[in-house]
Amino acid sequence: MKKSKLSVGIIAIALVIFTVTSCKDNKQDEKSAKEDHSEMNHDNSDGHHDGEKKEMAMNGNGASQDILNDYFNLKDALVADDNAKAKDLGATLAKSLGNLDVSNYTDAQKADLKDIIEDAVEQSEHISKNDIDHQREHFKTLSNDVIDMVAITGTTTKIYEQFCPMYDGGSAWLSINEEVKNPYYGSKMLKCGKVQKEIN
To answer: pTM, whole model, 2 decimals?
Structure first.
């Protein structure tokens, strides 16, 4: 009986050691897979990205670039904790969004863009009327809308999709600069975040 208890104890300890080792190996594998994936995102020559999306990403039109420029200005105002400037830029962005010409897109893309733009205008209008904490809440949804828009319209310049894991369960935004400057925390945690994708 003692022998069988001892055997069971040894097997249990062996299982625990095996599980812990497997988790560590798995985390290292995940980490190296993530590193490999991020390298693929930075080097499009490996064919990782779908050719159609690559082509679309090169075809940003003037109106979508105006939207992006106004979005980047708004993002910079939030980075600088400038509530008043963000209000003005929210109103400016709402107008730019309304000027997007969707006539050259497929019917499915037109429908998607219509929904995206409608929501983005609503978020921009909220930003134009609220305090900075509420502006940042609406900026999260606005950023998701603009990321979705860029997936359809493309961009004429290289931009970076950046991500803060701490704000509201994880929040993304776009930037023209690779250096991370966090619009969700501003001066409180300016460098919190990472580049998760290059779009060009």
So the answer is: 0.70
Residue 93, helix vs strand vs coil: helix
Q: Which residue is it, tokens 């993002």?
A: 75
Q: Where are the alpha helices (DSSP H) in 43-61?
A: 51-57
Per-residue confidence band for 63, with pLDDT thresholds at 50, 70 and 90: confident
The identity of residue 89, as a single letter, is L
Nearest CA to 63 out of 52, 71, 75 is that of: 71
- Element (H or E) spanning 170, and its range? none
Q: Which residues on neighbouring strands pair with residue 133, listed in sequence order?
A: none
Residue pLDDT, tens place only, 18-49: 333 333 333 333 333 333 333 333 333 333 33
DSSP string, 39-84: HHHH-GGGS-S-HHHHHHHT---HHHHHHHHHHHHHHHHHHTT-HH
Q: How far apart are CA 16 and CA 10, in angstroms?
A: 10
What contacts 134, CB < 8 A, 6 or more positions away? 126
Q: Is the model's pLDDT at 181 over the cut of 90? A: yes
